[in-house]
């Protein structure tokens, strides 16, 4: 297949693209590291110019998949070319180098595209100083292609006049026997297709050889006429637009039913005109050369898949034909064997006396204990004397106690040929092996037995032939169907940009990527990580750089942070060493490439500035599963599959109707255990509450009160500290507790009462010796009035207050100082923000169980990251996919396909096992001894035997290549799954 331009193609495409001159650059995108798109526009039209280093340049009408984040080269091109006009588009000399100039004067920039060898794309300023080069290298000893070097414009070849002297010199320098076409192609600029066209047109075959079928003296004038026509076509291409042609190859598609013949047309070459050598080949014609090239390259991948499928179909049909051929040969062999055994038996019977005498003679010689050599000499002497027995012996096989006799039909005519004898029922002469231990009759019977055995075998073969052939045809049809299905799936297969990295999607729909090596670590941080993203790294040397993509800028929940931390640990040396360690997260803006000393770090190494937020240790447990790409119409059915689990979704749903009445008001405070200080304080306060309370369900028969008031009143009624109120408030994504002591009395050794009225200064009440009862009554009165005004509590509850324990006074003072500025509105806002990220508690457990659960997870839940304001950058992301587009991309992938979903393809994914809880297919991976490839195949085989799998899902799993299955597994593994042992058996 043709993959790059020749010189004539470049001339034709430059002529056609002159219509783009004057259009402004709207934006620039990159498809891959060698292919770029330039979007041009003018008031009356738009165009998209596509160029690929080393291969092509043309206008495209197809929608090409663009990288989500632009490459460094794209950003450089945008910086210098955006909003500038395309001023000129020309070829340097007659070489395959194209110069695109944008802007004029000192504001001019050049994009130089090299379409030969490995190719290159170079951006220069108006003085041809290189600003950016796609492939830096040195050509020769002096010419350097690097930034700040000057691009050498004189390096392109200049055209020469094709005259008689030049052609004669080319021919004289060639070797006798060289093909004429190859000699001309390497010395002239017309290209192989155009030269072959003019040579054929003027009577020179493709196999014409210099010095043999081509005479330099006689045929040079005819060759000059042909080359003059080539030059004329070449010059015309510089001034007028040519049509486009795609040359195809017709191939018959194999089919099990011979009546159905299908043909497949594969694209082979593209040309600006229909050449002589392609007149008899199928082709497609287009109005312009660019249209033909655009069609050719857009279908190239699908064409490759079709050709590969065609080869697989041919191999399947070849196997079926081999089965048929093998059956036919087996039947023919059995029939021939029967006929030979029958003839041998009949010859022995008709020569019975001769056979018996020969057997007896040889046995006598053996009985005399003569050596085999002497026996052979005796037989030769007897043959010379005309002994009939000796003359019948062809060969001695005494090692197996056999002799070979040449037997003739004594009733046949010697003049008849073998074929004529067979036609008349006569047996020709034949060499027959005779067993010396058997008589002639016994030897004949042995051959008859062999004939009967072969006849029975033939009958069984004939009986099984139909069944075996039908089975082979059925397998072949299924193979053809599978090949076509997999081909269609692979055509629809879209390779996502993140698949080149380690990746997975968290339980809460965040995309996580990690580098496979140091170069990818560098690429992820420099190109794909933004300030709002989260950088996660295992606390171990050489671990992969993990980035949580956070396009919305909202806080990343702790569950996603923990899952990313598990990934960071598993993709490190901890997997092979089976060591559990910690990971930490920081904001993207905390990651720097420069050390504090100003030293630039090595590839894949980064400096973390500021505080590291450590995550709890994670187990080395991953899972293998599949995500299925949904058709656009089915995506809506799966929205919310991976979402942040909110308090209302799970916690409240766990409260059964038997525990609560229909009119009950429920307020379930979700505690944020990520704040260690708050948890300790909360735990101490809960220890003071009622010990007989068995569960944490909150009930109330006062529907007129608010939820918060119900909680406060209940706690006031049952608490040992009825005057202490606990409020939960939120600041920037973190939950804080507000303990507000309404009024607390402490009896000191000097019998002084210290009253806290809600401010910073305690009021000390000293007992008076005189009127002691009055003084006490006054203090109780003010105490009641203050509590009634502040907390709306009754007099009886105030009398139940007890003495504060040792150390509680200073703690309450610190708490009051910390949370004194909070009000109810701010507390409610912070509760809403953190509603989904707190630890989900089982409300039906006892209070003791709840405290144990809190202690278990203490210091393990990470702090919820707060959203940061992204810093302003000079990068231009106009018309780039927005954050919502990135979310929509991963929303189109589901691990739980529903009945009726239209699935396009399957993508294997390796993720922390907890992430795959709801996936349809999953298997657990832990460090072990099994090789990655074998483990992946075993997992897929298990999925294929799932009783709930559909035929479409089977086809999608079959279409996944083996290298895609195992490439993200961190190392040697152990598989764990239900019924795994049954599968192995």
From TrEMBL:
<protein>
    <recommendedName>
        <fullName>Nuclear export mediator factor NEMF homolog</fullName>
    </recommendedName>
</protein>
<feature type="region of interest" description="Disordered">
    <location>
        <begin position="685"/>
        <end position="704"/>
    </location>
</feature>
<dbReference type="GO" id="GO:0072344">
    <property type="term" value="P:rescue of stalled ribosome"/>
</dbReference>
<comment type="similarity">
    <text>Belongs to the NEMF family.</text>
</comment>
<dbReference type="Pfam" id="PF05670">
    <property type="entry name" value="NFACT-R_1"/>
</dbReference>
<feature type="domain" description="NFACT protein C-terminal">
    <location>
        <begin position="885"/>
        <end position="975"/>
    </location>
</feature>
<dbReference type="InterPro" id="IPR051608">
    <property type="entry name" value="RQC_Subunit_NEMF"/>
</dbReference>
<feature type="domain" description="NFACT RNA-binding">
    <location>
        <begin position="500"/>
        <end position="610"/>
    </location>
</feature>
<feature type="region of interest" description="Disordered">
    <location>
        <begin position="765"/>
        <end position="881"/>
    </location>
</feature>
<dbReference type="InterPro" id="IPR008532">
    <property type="entry name" value="NFACT_RNA-bd"/>
</dbReference>
<keyword id="KW-0963">Cytoplasm</keyword>
<keyword id="KW-0175">Coiled coil</keyword>
<feature type="coiled-coil region">
    <location>
        <begin position="293"/>
        <end position="357"/>
    </location>
</feature>
<feature type="compositionally biased region" description="Basic and acidic residues">
    <location>
        <begin position="849"/>
        <end position="874"/>
    </location>
</feature>
<dbReference type="Pfam" id="PF11923">
    <property type="entry name" value="NFACT-C"/>
</dbReference>
<dbReference type="GO" id="GO:0005634">
    <property type="term" value="C:nucleus"/>
</dbReference>
<feature type="compositionally biased region" description="Basic and acidic residues">
    <location>
        <begin position="693"/>
        <end position="704"/>
    </location>
</feature>
<dbReference type="Pfam" id="PF05833">
    <property type="entry name" value="NFACT_N"/>
</dbReference>
<dbReference type="InterPro" id="IPR021846">
    <property type="entry name" value="NFACT-C"/>
</dbReference>
<feature type="compositionally biased region" description="Basic residues">
    <location>
        <begin position="806"/>
        <end position="817"/>
    </location>
</feature>
<dbReference type="GO" id="GO:0005737">
    <property type="term" value="C:cytoplasm"/>
</dbReference>
<keyword id="KW-0539">Nucleus</keyword>
């Amino acid at each position: 297949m043709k993959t790059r331009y020749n010189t004539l193609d470049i001339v034709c495409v430059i002529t056609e693209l002159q219509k783009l001159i004057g259009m402004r650059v709207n934006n620039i995108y990159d498809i891959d590291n060698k292919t770029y798109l330039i979007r041009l526009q003018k008031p009356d039209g738009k165009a998209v110019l596509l160029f690929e280093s080393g291969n092509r340049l043309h206008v495209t009408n197809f929608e090409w998949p663009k990288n989500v984040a632009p490459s460094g080269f794209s950003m450089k091109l945008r910086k210098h070319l955006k909003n500038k006009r395309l001023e000129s588009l020309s070829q340097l000399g007659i070489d395959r180098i194209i110069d695109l100039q944008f802007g004029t004067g000192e504001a001019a920039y050049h994009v130089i595209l090299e379409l030969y060898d490995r190719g290159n794309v170079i951006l220069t300023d108006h003085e041809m100083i290189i600003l950016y080069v796609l492939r830096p290298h040195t050509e020769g000893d002096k010419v350097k292609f690097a930034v700040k070097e000057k691009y050498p414009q004189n390096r392109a070849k200049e055209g020469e006049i094709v005259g008689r002297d030049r052609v004669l010199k080319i021919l004289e320098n060639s070797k006798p026997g060289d093909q004429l076409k190859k000699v001309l192609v390497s010395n002239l600029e017309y290209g192989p297709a155009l030269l072959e066209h003019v040579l054929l047109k003027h009577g020179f075959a493709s196999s014409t050889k210099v010095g043999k079928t081509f005479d330099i003296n006689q045929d040079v004038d005819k060759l000059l006429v042909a080359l003059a026509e080539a030059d004329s076509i070449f010059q015309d291409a510089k001034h007028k637009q040519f049509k486009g042609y795609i040359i195809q190859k017709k191939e018959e598609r194999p089919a099990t039913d011979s009546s159905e013949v299908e043909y497949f047309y594969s694209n082979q070459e593209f040309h600006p005109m229909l050449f002589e050598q392609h007149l008899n080949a199928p082709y497609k014609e287009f109005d312009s050369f660019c249209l033909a090239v655009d069609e050719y390259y857009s279908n190239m991948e699908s064409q490759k898949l079709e050709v590969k499928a065609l080869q697989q179909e041919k191999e399947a049909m070849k196997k079926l034909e081999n089965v048929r051929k093998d059956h036919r040969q087996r039947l023919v062999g059995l029939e021939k064997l029967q006929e030979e055994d029958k003839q041998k038996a009949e010859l022995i019977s008709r020569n019975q006396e001769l056979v018996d005498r020969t057997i007896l003679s040889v046995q006598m010689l053996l009985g005399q204990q003569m050596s085999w050599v002497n026996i052979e000499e005796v037989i030769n002497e007897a043959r010379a004397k005309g002994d009939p027995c000796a003359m019948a012996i062809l060969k001695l096989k005494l090692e197996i106690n056999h002799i070979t006799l040449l037997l003739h039909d004594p009733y046949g005519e010697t003049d008849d040929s073998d074929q004529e004898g067979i036609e008349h029922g006569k047996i020709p002469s034949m060499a027959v092996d005779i067993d010396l231990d058997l008589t002639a009759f016994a030897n004949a019977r042995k051959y008859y037995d062999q004939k009967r055995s072969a006849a029975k075998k033939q009958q069984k073969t004939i009986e099984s032939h139909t069944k075996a052939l039908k089975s082979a045809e059925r397998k072949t049809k299924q193979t053809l169907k599978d090949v076509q299905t997999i081909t269609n799936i692979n055509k629809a297969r879209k390779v996502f940009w993140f698949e080149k990295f380690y990746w997975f999607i968290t339980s809460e729909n965040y995309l996580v990527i990690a580098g496979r090596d140091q170069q990818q670590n560098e690429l992820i941080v420099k190109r794909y990580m933004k300030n709002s993203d989260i950088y996660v790294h295992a606390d171990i040397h050489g671990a992969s750089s993990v980035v949580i993509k956070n396009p919305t800028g909202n806080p990343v929940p702790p569950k996603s942070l923990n899952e990313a931390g598990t990934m960071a640990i598993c993709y490190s040396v901890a997997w092979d060493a089976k060591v559990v360690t910690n990971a930490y997260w920081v904001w993207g803006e905390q990651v720097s490439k420069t050390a504090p000393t100003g030293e630039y770090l090595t590839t894949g190494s980064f400096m973390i500035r500021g505080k590291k937020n450590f995550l709890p240790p994670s187990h080395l447990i991953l899972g293998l599963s599949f995500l299925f790409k949904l058709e656009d119409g089915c995506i809506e059915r799966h929205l919310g599959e991976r979402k942040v689990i909110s308090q209302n979704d799970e916690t409240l749903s766990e409260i059964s109707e038997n525990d609560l009445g229909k009119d009950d008001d429920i307020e379930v405070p979700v505690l944020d255990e990520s704040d260690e200080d708050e948890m300790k304080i909360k735990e101490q306060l809960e220890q003071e509450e009622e010990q007989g309370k068995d569960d944490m369900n909150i009930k109330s028969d006062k529907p007129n009160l608010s939820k918060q008031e119900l909680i406060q009143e209940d706690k006031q009624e049952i608490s040992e500290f009825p005057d202490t109120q606990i409020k939960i408030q939120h600041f920037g994504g973190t939950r804080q507790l507000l303990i507000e002591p309404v009024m607390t009395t402490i009896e000191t050794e000097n019998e002084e009462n210290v009253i806290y009225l809600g401010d910073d200064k305690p009021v000390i009440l000293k007992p008076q010796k005189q009127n002691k009862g009055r003084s006490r009554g006054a203090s109780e009165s003010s105490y009641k009035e203050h509590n009634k005004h502040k907390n709306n509590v009754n007099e009886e509850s105030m009398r139940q207050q007890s003495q504060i324990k040792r150390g509680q006074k200073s703690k309450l003072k610190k708490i009051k100082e910390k949370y004194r500025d909070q009000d109810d509105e701010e507390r409610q806002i912070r509760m809403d923000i953190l509603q989904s990220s707190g630890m989900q508690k089982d409300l039906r457990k006892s209070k003791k169980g709840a405290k144990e659960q809190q202690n278990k997870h203490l210091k393990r839940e990470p702090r919820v990251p707060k959203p940061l304001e992204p810093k302003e950058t000079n990068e231009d992301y106009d018309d780039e996919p927005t954050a919502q587009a990135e979310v929509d991309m991963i929303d189109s992938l589901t691990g739980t396909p529903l009945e009726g979903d239209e699935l396009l393809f399957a993508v294997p994914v390796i993720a922390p096992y907890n992430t795959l809880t709801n996936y349809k297919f999953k298997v657990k991976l832990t460090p072990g001894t099994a090789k990655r490839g074998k483990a992946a195949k075993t997992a897929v085989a298990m999925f294929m035997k799932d009783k709930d799998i559909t035929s479409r899902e089977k086809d999608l799993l079959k279409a996944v290549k083996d290298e895609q299955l195992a490439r993200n597994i961190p190392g040697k593994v152990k598989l764990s799954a239900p019924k795994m042992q049954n599968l192995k058996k």
